[in-house]
Amino acid sequence: MKSVVYSRTGDPSVLRLVDRDVTEPGPGEVRVRVVVSGVNPTDWKSRLGSGDGAAPPFPEVTPNQDGAGVVDALGDGVVDLAVGDRVWVYLAGHQRPTGTAQEYTNLPAGRVGRLPGGTSFDIGASLGVPAMTAHRALTVSEDGPQRLHPGALAGEVVLVAGGAGAVGHAAIQLARWAGATVLTTVSSAAKAALATAAGAHHVISYRDQDAATAIKKVAPEGVDLVVEVAAAVNAQLNLDVVKPRASVAIYANDGGAEFTLDVRQNMMKNLRYQFVLLYTVGDAALRAAVDDITLALVDDALPVAEDAGLPLHRFPLAKTADAHQAVQDGAVGKVVIDVL
Ligand SMILES: NC(=O)c1ccc[n+]([C@@H]2O[C@H](COP(=O)([O-])OP(=O)(O)OC[C@H]3O[C@@H](n4cnc5c(N)ncnc54)[C@H](OP(=O)(O)O)[C@@H]3O)[C@@H](O)[C@H]2O)c1
């Protein structure tokens, strides 16, 4: 099979297209014939050595956590999937060398979800990291639901920072599907159009106007939950617009890695900060996310492509390095690799 690998960390040129044997899945694993591989910032950050340039965790690593394809073989003990099932996969390369930038990948059956009905492989490859992170962020508030379904967030005001980002897009879609009033902040008119297409009720261009004023105008009672990509930059904004007992779910440090908190002002609002990292979120949260995302797929609530607010940028497997560079350069939308 064709496989993309790296044996040392560094810029995209460390990625090599090689031929490798197809291997049998181990106990509890499935082998998936990958059709589309999804690229996320975490994939290039790992390839780069996770910040400090550390060596790869295995002698040879195939990148990319997300993807979609068809179950091709079952390991011993796998009973709830069948050969031929159309599936999406997540965390394919977490603590193992078997990402999705290759024609076949083996992974634990628990990291595989079925694609209901006619759900496309493009949607499937766009789910993993973004949708599961968004699910966690939307289910960690004190007064909010722990699971998502239509009506779960009814009456709640959710503010999604950066609604044209991949996680932001998934957060808008899931929050909207679950019945929230969805506000989002973006940096440009083009991104505003995408966030509107994703389903946001109110889109605030934070460069053109005072975001706090604009948010308070459409949500005078305040925001219940913030899904935050730029916690340091938006710390004061969040404090200004949230209502008492709100939560700020922080999943990234874009724009700044540290910020200070005014104890009294935060205390006055009983504000809660919940950090979110998919890798350590735990099995119960992962399972809940897969189940709820599957329901949303049945409802056709998670479309992708430009008219759904997430333009797709396609690359062939041999151009995986270019795909990584595109994500690293901040491509707006979703970068996917056609493997089949
Ligand atoms: N913790 C986790 O488990 C987890 C999971 C997934 C992703 N992440 C991290 O989350 C980040 C985003 O991932 P992604 O795939 O969504 O990337 P992406 O598609 O590139 O989106 C990033 C978005 O952040 C927005 N942004 C940056 N500064 C902002 C600000 N001050 N206010 C509002 N929006 C702002 C940008 O929009 P504007 O240009 O409109 O500002 C951009 O659309 C990455 O750092 C990634 O590594 C973490």
Task: Give the helices and strands, then pairings.
Blueprint: E1 2-5, E2 16-19, E3 29-39, H1 41-47, E4 66-74, E5 86-89, E6 104-108, E7 112-114, H2 121-138, E8 157-161, H3 166-177, E9 181-186, H4 189-198, E10 202-205, H5 211-218, E11 223-228, H6 235-241, E12 242-250, H7 263-268, E13 272-275, H8 283-298, E14 312-316, H9 320-328, E15 334-338
Parallel strand pairs: 8-9, 8-11, 9-10, 11-12, 12-13, 14-15
Antiparallel strand pairs: 1-2, 3-4, 3-6, 3-15, 4-5, 5-7
Helix pairs in contact: 1-9, 2-3, 2-8, 5-6
The structure holds NADP nicotinamide-adenine-dinucleotide phosphate.
Calculate the terminal CA-CA distance, rounded to whole Å: 11 Å
The topology string of helices and strands comes to: EEEHEEEEHEHEHEHEHEHEHEHE
Question: Which ligands, by name, code or SMILES, are bound?
Answer: NADP nicotinamide-adenine-dinucleotide phosphate
Q: Could you describe the largest sheet, including whether it forms a barrel? A: 7 strands, mixed
Number of strands: 15
Give helix % range: 25-40%
Rg, alpha carbons: 20 Å
Number of helices: 9
Shape: globular
**What oligomeric state is this?**
single chain
Structural class: alpha/beta
Strand content: 15-25%
Low-confidence stretches: none
What would the average pLDDT be, to the nearest integer?
97
